[in-house]
UniProtKB/TrEMBL annotation:
Residues 5-72 form the HTH gntR-type domain. SMART domains: HTH_GNTR. This is GntR family transcriptional regulator. Keywords: DNA-binding, Transcription, Transcription regulation. PANTHER family: GLUCONATE OPERON TRANSCRIPTIONAL REPRESSOR, TRANSCRIPTIONAL REGULATOR, GNTR FAMILY. InterPro entries: GntR_C, TF_FadR/GntR_C, Tscrpt_reg_HTH_GntR, WH-like_DNA-bd_sf, WH_DNA-bd_sf. Pfam families: FCD, GntR.
């Protein structure tokens, strides 16, 4: 059973990574025989991995075709951001009770680097720095299941990011300012409720920027 589970996890990781990095494009069919051969397993673990990816809405099953890459449409992207707002708000409030002085200093460094990249028009680096900022906060959250769900949703959104649809230059200066204020809230030991609400609204403003991008 353990071996089968490991094969399933491996197949899941292989397929998911290729979806997120753009190797597999929307509409592309997943060939079970090929994946099974690559991971050195029978069809069963691969099918289980595919079912999991279907539940995450990264794949969909089509009659007479099989599993294909679904990608993300505007509706799913917006719904994912709404879910992230809730998850990240709560994760940030939990992390705030555990974060160290060194952790807060690191957040300031990352945010300052974001400001520098913005001023130097090195816009391609802002996305990864933004992710580093938030996931550094979550490194102080003891609820691993919560973090796993956040990582899963970020991964789903990465499909859209690969197409360049999620960078909003007008939003970035405000986002950096919001990061700075969030750090201040954690430094002054603001209430968990206040931190959760602010972090949640920070993500919802990204959703508003997406809606108004045109």
């Amino acid at each position: 059973m353990e071996t089968i589970m490991n094969k399933r996890q491996y197949a899941y990781k292989v397929i998911r990574t290729r979806i997120v990095d753009g190797t597999y494009t929307p509409g592309q069919r997943i060939v079970i025989n090929q994946i099974a051969k690559e991971v050195g397993s029978s069809h069963i673990p691969v099918r289980e991995a595919i079912h999991q990816l279907e539940s995450e809405q990264l794949l969909e099953f089509r009659p007479n075709v099989g599993a294909i890459v679904k990608g993300i449409d505007n509706r799913l992207y917006q719904e994912s951001l709404e879910v992230l707002a809730l998850l990240e708000g709560y994760a940030t409030s939990i992390s705030a009770t555990n974060i160290t002085a060194h952790g807060l200093s690191k957040l300031k460094e990352i945010n300052l680097e974001m400001q520098t990249m913005l001023e130097n028009y090195e816009l391609d680096k802002l996305g990864s720095l933004n992710r580093e900022f938030h996931f550094h906060i979550y490194s102080f959250c003891p609820n691993q299941l919560l973090i796993n769900n956040i990582e899963e949703t970020w991964g789903r959104l990465d499909i859209v990011r690969q197409a360049g649809f999620t960078f909003y230059p007008k939003r970035t200066p405000q986002s950096i300012e919001e990061h700075a204020y969030l750090i201040k809230l954690m430094e002054c030991n603001a209430s968990s409720l206040q931190i959760e609400e602010y972090a949640r609204n920070h993500k919802l403003k990204t959703l508003e920027a997406f809606k108004q991008r045109n």
